[in-house]
Design brief:
The complex is a heterodimer.
Chain A lengths: L9 H9 L14 H7 L3 H7 L7 H13 L3 H15 L5 H4 L10
Chain B lengths: L4 E4 L3 H12 L4 E5 L18 H4 L9 E6 L2 E6 L23 H5 L14 H15 L24 H12 L45 H7 L3 E5 L1 E8 L5 E8 L2 E6 L2 E4 L2 H11 L23 E2 L2 E5 L16 E2 L15 E3 L5 H7 L10 H10 L3 E5 L2 E2 L9 E7 L5 E4 L6 H21 L4 E3 L40 E3 L14 H19 L1
Parallel strand pairs in B: 1-2, 1-9, 2-5, 3-17, 9-19
Antiparallel strand pairs in B: 3-4, 6-7, 7-8, 10-15, 11-14, 11-18, 12-13, 13-14, 16-17
Classes of the chains: A mainly alpha, B alpha/beta.
């Protein structure tokens, strides 16, 4: 049984819309939240304004698309930093076909 | 230890200088502001420096040079090896016409496009020596004469390179292997390339990437005549009461020291060398040493990089093996109607996933969400990227100056880079961008697109050149054709700052060839 959204970190909900779990890991699988907060402290100001809890995925995406259209600076930074953390994490590499070929490395 | 020569900077030029001078029996002090990290043990995370620098990360995360440009500061890694620790290893000779750009194209309004006081033929023996001593893998130089072969066989061409070569042939363009300072076979006591995917922006995990740190500097250390001080930032070239060069002031462990020598060689790169000379004012040199004709710091140039991307047809399997660049053409370096110069064109290094997310997805791809993830999965291995270093038309207003208020951690003014790329450079870049697109289309790409020219600012992090221009006479530049600063018999420069123009190629091999030539002059003088 999944956790009620009201008790889930609102940042995790947001990250899972940016980088959702599908046939490969999503942002929450990689637990990016803490590092993201460290690199982008302003994200708390975004979360004060944007609460996706209780919304359907379609409603959540619509809310985020509106932020993107408005070029919200914190949301713009969030898109970049979230993907930086996700795609610099070796756990994301296999799904796109990237391997380092360095012994002992993914 | 008393020394004969002080060399500032342990990158490719400084390394070549210390190897040549110590092996001739002279004692050298090498000052390097960065550290002496092991290439093999360096950080390999994709968000760690220096790889992160390639993805546009700015800020103060890195120890090293701090430069003000484009409205902000950038701090770049420094260390023994300099840029060669993490470079893409492309070791090109310039085209003979790159040495006579003004004769070939005139001097556009607002520019300082000029001929070099030396020719390709003057430099050719030094190119060959540079290739041999550094260790360069290649097969031919179809645009220029060469007096000997490359020491290493070329990188093996893969499926994507073969596909691009076929496309080039359809356009009537000759292709060949890009010369790489890479051990394609064990060489100089170090192993061969693994063909891993962490190359440009990373140190080499098996030390097969050839640079100053594993070739020239170790040679100099082996003589017992080199004293290497890392964490040592030069702050001033010292002069005596008559204005003659007597040594270098530098700071290490928070302490200001002065070292004296018979000769000084500056090799900090086109930004830091110009900065150091501008900082070295005295009653005899009120505007800085070498600034007798107001050329010091001017003519800053790099390369403007047009990029085209395309989707491989399903029939071309991309094995995604590093370093990635394995086919090049010089068909468009010159003879492009109506524009000045051009560029060598080649496929790009294997991209990290993060870099691909930033710049590799086709226009119209959502920047986040399920469709973005699907595009990454579907297109990462199917996207091919060709790019070209268009040589920039220099101007006197594109320059290194001392920032009036921003200081480095020692309280010394940082370099500031005012100026914008000359319009003729952008015209050439536009032509080359189209040629790149033509190349992908002729090869059979399913879709092509180009990256926009993001800004017209000056490069603050790669291929900088020109700020201590070489000239026949003192009125037209900072150094003479041997690399000696005009008006000073014992001050030399061995880095890209002396380049009059920067070629339509990565400039490292030219910097190295000139540095070897200049070091030979230093040795002659010390005899």
């Amino acid at each position: 049984m999944s956790e009620p959204q009201s008790s889930v970190d609102p940042l995790e909900i947001l990250l899972d819309r940016l980088i959702p779990r599908d046939e490969s890991a999503g942002a929450s699988d990689l637990r990016l939240g803490d590092e993201l907060r460290r690199r982008l402290p302003d994200v708390t100001r975004l979360l004060d304004r944007v609460d996706l809890r209780g919304l359907s995925p379609i409603e959540q995406d619509a809310r985020l698309l509106r932020l993107e259209r408005e070029r919200d600076p914190i949301f713009e930074a969030l898109i970049v930093v979230a993907h930086e953390l996700y795609y610099s994490n070796p756990a994301s590499w296999q799904s796109i076909g990237y391997t380092t070929r360095i012994p002992g490395r993914p | 230890m008393k020394v004969d020569v002080i060399v500032v900077g342990a990158g490719l030029g400084g390394g070549a200088a210390v190897a040549s001078i110590t092996e001739a029996g002279h004692r050298v002090l090498l000052l390097e502001q960065g550290g002496a990290s092991s290439a093999v043990d360096a950080p390999r995370g994709h968000l760690d420096p220096p790889a992160a620098a390639l993805t546009g990360v700015r800020g103060d995360a890195f120890r090293g040079r701090r430069i003000y440009s484009d409205g902000g500061t950038r701090t770049l890694p420094a260390g023994v090896g300099g840029g060669t620790l993490t470079w893409g290893m492309q070791a090109w000779r310039f085209h003979p016409d790159d040495f006579r750009m003004s004769s070939r194209y005139g001097t556009p309004a607002g520019s300082s496009l000029a001929d070099w006081p030396i020719t390709y033929d003057d430099l050719e023996p030094w190119y060959l020596r540079a290739e041999t001593e550094l260790g360069v893998a290649g097969d031919s130089t179809p645009y220029a004469g060469r007096s000997g072969p490359y020491p290493l066989h070329p990188i093996e061409r893969g499926a994507v390179g073969t596909w691009l070569a076929e496309g080039a042939r359809a356009l009537g363009w000759q292709t060949f292997a890009p010369p790489l300072a890479l051990n394609t076979t064990p060489y100089a006591g170090r192993s061969a390339c693994l063909r891993c995917n962490e190359c440009l922006g990373f140190t080499c995990p098996v030390d097969a990437k050839n640079g100053s740190h594993n070739t020239f500097v170790p040679r100099a250390l082996a003589t017992g005549l080199l004293r290497l001080e890392t964490g040592a930032q030069a702050t001033r070239v010292s002069t005596d009461g008559a204005g003659r060069i007597i040594g270098v002031e530098y700071v290490t462990d928070g302490e200001l020291r002065t070292a004296t020598s018979k000769a000084v060689v500056l090799a900090g790169g086109a930004i830091e060398t110009a900065r150091l000379l501008l900082l070295s004012t005295s009653p005899h040199h009120r505007d800085g040493i070498g600034n007798h004709s107001d050329h010091l710091g001017r003519h800053l140039q790099s390369h403007t990089y047009p990029v085209a991307l395309g989707i491989l047809p399903p029939s071309v399997h991309n094995p995604n093996r590093g370093p990635g660049v394995d086919v090049a053409t010089t068909a468009c370096n010159h003879d492009n109607p109506g524009v000045i110069g051009g560029a060598m064109m080649a496929n790009d290094f294997v991209k990290t996933p993060l870099t691909h997310w930033r710049i590799g997805l086709p226009p119209g791809t959502p920047r986040w969400g399920r469709k973005n993830k699907e595009a990454m999965r579907d297109l990462y291995l199917r996207t091919v990227d060709v790019r070209a270093p268009v040589q920039e038309v220099p101007t006197p207003d594109n320059r290194v100056t001392l920032h009036p208020s921003i200081r480095d951690p020692l309280g010394v003014p940082v370099a500031s880079l005012p100026g914008i790329v000359h319009p003729e450079t952008l015209r050439t870049a536009e032509v080359i961008r189209q040629r790149l697109t033509d190349w992908l289309a002729a090869s059979g790409a399913e879709r092509t697109w180009t990256l926009p020219q993001l800004n017209r600012g000056l490069s603050d992090w790669f291929h900088q050149a020109g700020t201590c221009r070489m000239s026949a006479g003192p009125e037209d530049g900072v150094v003479d054709p041997s690399g000696r600063v005009h008006g000073h018999d014992n001050l030399f420069i061995a880095d890209g700052s002396t380049n009059v123009t920067n070629g339509g190629f990565n400039p490292a091999l030219t910097i190295l060839a000139l540095a070897l030539r200049t070091a030979d002059q230093v040795v002659s003088q010390l005899r």
